[in-house]
Specification:
The complex is a heterodimer.
Chain A: E1 16-27, E2 30-41, E3 45-49, H1 56-63, E4 71-76, E5 79-80, H2 88-91, E6 94-97, H3 109-121, H4 125-138, H5 154-166, E7 172-176, H6 184-199, E8 203-207, H7 211-216, E9 220-225, E10 228-233, H8 235-240, H9 245-254
Parallel strand pairs in A: 3-8, 3-9, 6-7, 7-8
Antiparallel strand pairs in A: 1-2, 1-4, 4-5, 9-10
Chain B: H1 7-11, H2 13-47, H3 50-65, H4 68-83, H5 89-115, H6 118-126, H7 131-161, H8 173-184, H9 187-216
Helix pairs in contact in B: 2-3, 2-5, 2-8, 3-5, 4-5, 5-7, 6-7, 7-9, 8-9
Classes of the chains: A alpha/beta, B mainly alpha.
Subcellular location (chain A): Cell membrane
Domain ABC transporter (chain A): 18-251
Organism (chain A): Bosea caraganae
Chain lengths: 258, 222
């Protein structure tokens, strides 16, 4: 990557936390990722944007080895990512938040947040639940500890899901369209929690259709199309002076012109 | 005009009660063992390696293809010839019913597991859980709740199917009824009572499980 390509990028002088090199992912004959190279530095909020099916979410799932890649490599903290079967030790160092929350319905909010440390790290129940309660406070759900997911709104469920991921004290947080399944009135509460995390210095990769969030909170924006990176840059440049025609096309499709 | 005479039943009530207790004991044992077997087979069919999945599929398909009566009689008469080990009737009935009912339980377990959204497994793995931790902590508890209604049918089916073990002279309730019937020559009365007893046994089981399910259903919805 050239210096020019990183112009204005905060933290670009530091070694990357995650490095993607010519990553290729296929589903049968469909090429989901067609040689993606990118990097994420400590403390950055990297927003992946682009049309549906362009490969953003696929890249995220490959990042914590939920999916295997067919070509190239992904390097996390200097180590090449193992195959999915051997990835549990790496995954526990990355937090992931899903479009459909994926809270565990048979567990209360508190148990959902505590289950990672309890099961994976063997943390004692009292200690794990104390920490879980503190995280629920952090996401503004102190009073919902005993509630089950079916009793919570979408926005509340997603905030519990963020707390669940944070309970593992991850080095990176991966957000896969965290507000796409939410009612409009609850999008804000989730984005606020994410914004606070970003301000605390959490390294984040966010697949999102929330352009306002990418613009205001993102520190680096990567535009995807058809399994490739079209362009990347600081939000101001990408949104105000996109270099590529395909980026401009994508933005023009976003605004309703009926 | 039919004349009812329930006195032979009254006279033999201890004998019939003993038969009923054998039915209940055998049913409980078979339900426990076939549930364990069914969970292992069901989990193996979803998550096991290919060779295991094929072997288990063959087991399940063959059990569904063969009447339980045939399995029972084969276990009692043919198994000793083939392996030189004679099983007492009760043990033969326990083994045959477990193997038969276990295949049905495994199908329910498999369906329950496969109905849990794939994202639940991803979420568990993303936390750093191993696949087996994810299965035990996240997938099976949800699958278990979803399995309750069909599982209730299996439980009632199992209690009823213990009746076939009368053919190898297991002294359970059906066998006791046969004995009383043939000694008293009052089949109408005896079998009417048997009918009512089986119904009274089964009805609360089906209703009870249904009730439990309705209270737990929300915990299995992801």
């Amino acid at each position: 990557m050239t210096d020019a390509a990183n112009s204005g990028r905060v933290g670009a002088d530091r070694p990357p936390v995650i490095l993607y090199e010519e990553v290729v992912k296929r589903y049968g004959g469909f090429v989901a990722l067609n040689g993606v190279s990118a990097r994420v530095h400590q403390g950055e909020v990297v927003c992946l944007i682009g049309p549906s099916g362009s490969g953003k979410s696929t890249l995220l799932r490959c990042t914590n080895a939920l999916e295997a890649i067919e070509g190239g490599r992904i390097v996390f903290e200097g180590q090449t990512l193992p195959t999915p079967a051997l990835a549990a030790p790496v995954r526990r160092r990355m937090g992931m938040v899903f479009q459909n929350f994926e809270l565990f319905p048979h567990k209360s909010a508190l148990e959902n947040v505590a289950i990672g440390p309890r099961t994976v790290l063997g943390t004692a129940k009292a200690e794990a639940e104390e920490k879980a309660q503190a995280l629920l406070v952090k996401v503004g759900l102190a009073d919902k500890a005993a509630s089950y997911p079916s009793e919570l709104s979408g926005g509340q469920q997603q905030r519990v899901a963020i707390a669940r991921a944070l309970a593992m004290e991850p080095e990176v947080m991966l957000f896969d369209e965290p507000t796409s399944a939410l009612d409009p009135e609850t999008v804000g509460e989730v984005l606020n929690v994410m914004k606070r995390l970003a301000e605390e210095g959490m390294t984040m990769i966010v697949v999102t259709h929330e352009m306002t969030f990418a613009r205001r909170v993102g520190s680096w924006v990567v535009v995807f199309d058809k399994g490739r990176v079209v362009e990347e840059g600081v939000p101001k440049q990408v949104f105000e002076q996109p270099r590529e025609q395909r980026t401009r096309d994508f933005f023009s499709h976003l605004s309703w012109s009926g | 005009m039919l004349e009812f005479d329930f006195s032979p039943l009254v006279e033999s009530w201890r004998f019939l009660a003993l038969g009923l207790s054998v039915t209940l004991g055998l049913s409980a044992a078979v339900i426990v063992s076939s549930t364990v077997l069914g969970v292992l087979v069901g989990v193996g069919r979803v998550y096991g390696p290919r060779w295991l999945r094929l072997a288990l599929t063959f087991y399940v398909d063959s059990m569904r293809a063969v009447p339980v009566l045939v399995v029972l009689i084969w276990t009692f008469f043919a198994f000793p010839l083939a392996f030189g080990v004679t099983l007492p009737p009760l043990a033969a009935a326990f083994a045959a019913l477990t193997v038969h009912v276990g295949s049905y339980v495994s199908e329910i377990v498999r369906g329950g597991i496969e109905s849990v959204r794939a994202g639940q497994m991803r979420a568990a793995l993303a936390l750093g859980m191993t696949t087996s931790q994810a299965i035990r902590q996240v997938i099976l508890p949800q699958a278990a709740i979803r399995m309750l209604p069909p599982y209730a049918s299996i439980v009632t089916m199992t209690i009823k199917e213990t009746a076939v073990s009368a053919v190898i002279a297991v002294p359970e309730f059906m066998r006791s009824s046969e004995v009383v019937s043939s000694q008293s020559l009052r089949p109408l009365e005896v079998y009417t009572v048997a009918l009512v007893v089986y119904f009274l046994l089964m009805f609360p089981v089906a209703r009870g499980v249904d009730r439990i399910y309705r209270r737990l259903a929300h915990l299995g919805r992801s």
